[in-house]
Every structure is written in structure tokens, then in C-alpha cells.
Amino acid sequence: MFYTFTLTLRPTYMKKSPLLLLAGMALATACTRAPSTSTANTGEPALSAISEAELREDLFTLASDEMRGKRAGTVDELRAAAWVAEQAREAGLEPAGDDGTYFQFFPINRTKVADNSTVAINGKPLNLWQNAWLTSPAEVRVDAPVIWLNSLADTARHSLQGKVVAMALQAPAPLPAAGMSLWNYRYVASALRQQTNALKNQKAAAILFVTDAQAESDFGFVGHVFEEGTYQLEGDPKRQNSSSPVLLVHSTAASELQQKGAKLTANIGIDSYTYPSMNVVAKVPGTDPTLKDEYVLFSGHHDHDGIGAPVDGDSIYNGADDNASVTVALLAIGKAWVQQPGKRSALFVWHGAEERGLLGSRWYAAQPTVPKESIVAVLNADMIGRNAPDSAALLGSIPPHRNSTALVDMALNANKQYTNFVVDTSWDEASHPEGWYFRSDHLPYARVGIPALFFTTLLHPDYHTPRDEAERIDMAKLTRMTRWMYATGWAVSESPERPAVDPNAKLER
């Protein structure tokens, strides 16, 4: 949900030393590529070149605690990107980023509530991010009386202009679908949106919602999202906030808010930062004199959630399935392609800042390092190492998400010939409550008209928790999924015709 404020930003900061360090590493790796050990194209994909043992070794490195969760805009993401680039170099992949390097840097802008912000009820301070949460960063000063509402119907009995509205958070209607990912976050977000929309025209000085028992039952992740603030690409339209700041306060504050003459005092500032994030980009040239100027793009993301709210004492969100599984899969596919190049060239893009809103793939789709028209297909993957051993999903395979029937047929034929997964298409339906198609890095490419598919083994209870650890990955399944993705790309590479975009293909949103 978005709220409209007039914001006064404080000075912008940018930590330059990690960026300069990594840029130097990028130039160094570009100049020391390992020699190619390619073999002749036999017409069949080199599936045996994809090794479960190598996938395991890489996965346990990238998803280790030493990588600290690889959060976008941090030194930890820089470290992970440098590791990926070095593995690509050692495997013989050529740099395909900016200026002859393996990297494409881009700036991400973060806005968060300033650390020195204060909130008090009746002169008693509340601790931000412990018992009070601002739901969207805003520069705001409030010193106003509180009106307690027992229900939204009470708005008809009061003039709320210039006052602070306080009421209990009410369950949204309808509730998020049972079993939906990040259910508690969706519960809180839906409840906030519905109640705020009902109050947004009242010209209140601020709106306070007292958390209910459901919101408090598992609030660590939700509160951490609010504390982290918002992320955008440079040049994105400024987010519009409502004229009244919205805060969540713990239920222990209810009695203070209901007192006669209750008053809220808040002095909230915001800080704005510009961080470097980066895509890692590498390629393996094709063998056909004409087709080598076209690319099959293999896509994934190398970032995750970093350090967050502890769960059972663990605060490192390692992201083994999401998305170290795909990061190492792309490395394995790259090694196979070096060993046996296809007719078309293979392009590998490990996107940064996916978890902050598909920022890396949005940047690359708008500013690719190869001619956009030379990208014949995007094969993206996200989370390919969990759930039942023989099940998988292919999104972008049915309308309205399918934008290339030819590409879908290649993927399904590759599965039938080599990997034999039972393919679940239910998550690709427009009516599916998760909206999973719209949550990974193929989307920006599909929006600019490039044939695109999304390989996944779907969500599980460890999604976006510290329990997404390397030892929980089904390595045999990860190996099969890697081979399916590779075999599909190989079919695209070998086809005399590039997969066509379906006429009238159009996403529902």
C-alpha cells in the first residue's frame, strides 16, 4: 500500500569503497579468463557435464552463513556477485557486462525512517520497531489530540481533521487464501489498506492502528519490512503517500490511546541512500556463423534477504532455494555450454536486487549489454530445489501468461525427452492467489516482448525464513531441474528459427 506525503529528503549517502573494490575485481577477472575446453557440437545437450557434486559444492558455499544472506545494496551482495563472477571466469565464460567486465552496476535508492525519529503517547515514548512501526517512510511532525474509534462507523460522529485517529486493526475481508505464502504479512497489509482507504479523506493528522492478536502472533518479518523502508530504481516515479502518516502500535498502547485527553507526539524524519547493486553477466559464443549473433538468455538472481528478524535464534536468511539453487544451476549450465557450445550464443544474467522488486532484471531488460533484438528467449528460474522429487512447474506456459507457444513446446519436449517431471500448470493460472508469475525475473523481459519462461519447484514453508538452508535442498532434484533448463536452452540454440512471440499475447496486468 502507498500513502501520499510531501517528503523532505536528507542528504544522499553512498558507500564508495566496496564499489571501487569490486570494479577493480571486475576488470581483473575480465583479463584473466581461463582457456576454453570446448568439444564439438554433437547435436545433443551435454547433460553429463552437469554434476550433482559440483552443484552441491557451489550451493553450500553461496548459501553459507559467511555470505550473510546477500541482501541487495550491501557489501554482502557485492561479495556474492564477485564470487559468481569468479566462478564464471574459472569455468571459461566470457565477460558480457559493461566495459569488458562481468558486471553491470546500477543504483538503487532506499528511503527509510531516520534512526533519531521519536513517537510518544501522552508523553510516554514508544520504541520504534519494537512497539511502534511507521508503515511507510515519511517526514512528519505531529502534536495532536487522539480520537479513539470503536469502528469505522464512528467517523460520522466526529470531525477528524487535524486530529489523530486511533482504532483497532480489523481483520481484512476476505482473508488471504489459506496456506498462502507470507500469510501474516498479507493479513496485515490487506487490513491496513482496507482501513486506511476508508479513512484517507478525513484529513487526519495521523492514523494509528492497534495490532490485533493475529498481527502480533508472528510480527517479526512484517515489522522488519517496515523498518527496511522502500527501494526503487533511479528514475522510478516517486512513491506517493497519503496526507496522513499511518502507524501500527502494539496492543499494550490501547489503554493510553483511549484515555480522555490522549495525545500523540511524533517527530519522524527520513534518510535516503543510494547503493550500488549489480548484475553479473557472462556469455559463451555460439558456433554458427550467423546464429552466434543471437542469444539464449539464462536468468536468475543472486541476492536474498540478508540479516533479519530471528527465527529460533537464527537471523541469517541464507536463501538456499531462493535463489542460490538457480545461481549455481546457471554456473553449471555455463560449464556445459563451454564444454559443448550451441549454435546460438548463451547469455547468463545473475540479477541483483530481485528481492527488492525485480530491480536488476528491470534494469537489464531496459539497458541490456547486447542488442535487445538479439535475445531470442529468456529462460528464468527461481527456487528449483524443493518439494516432491518428480514435480515441477513451468510458468508462462498457459494463457494469459504464455507469450510464445513455440518456446513452451521446446521446454515441454525437453522435459519429456530428458527429465520427465510432472508439470504443474495450476500456479500459472491468472486466478491463482499467489500471483507467482509476476514475482520473478522473467517478467520485465516478457513485458518488452521477449519470449520468456519461468522454471520453478514452487513455494514451501521455509520461503523467506532463515530455515531456507542448503542442507534442505534435494540435490538430485536440483540437478534434474538444471538439466531441464539447459536442455530447453539447447533446443532454442539449435533451432533454425527463433521462437516466435504469439500474436495478441497480453498479460492480464
TrEMBL record:
GO terms for biological process: proteolysis. It holds the Pfam family Peptidase_M28. One of its GO terms (molecular function) is metalloexopeptidase activity. Residues 279-486 form the Peptidase M28 domain. Coiled coil: none annotated. Keywords: Signal. Residues 1-30 form the signal peptide. This is Peptidase M28 domain-containing protein. It comes from Pontibacter korlensis.
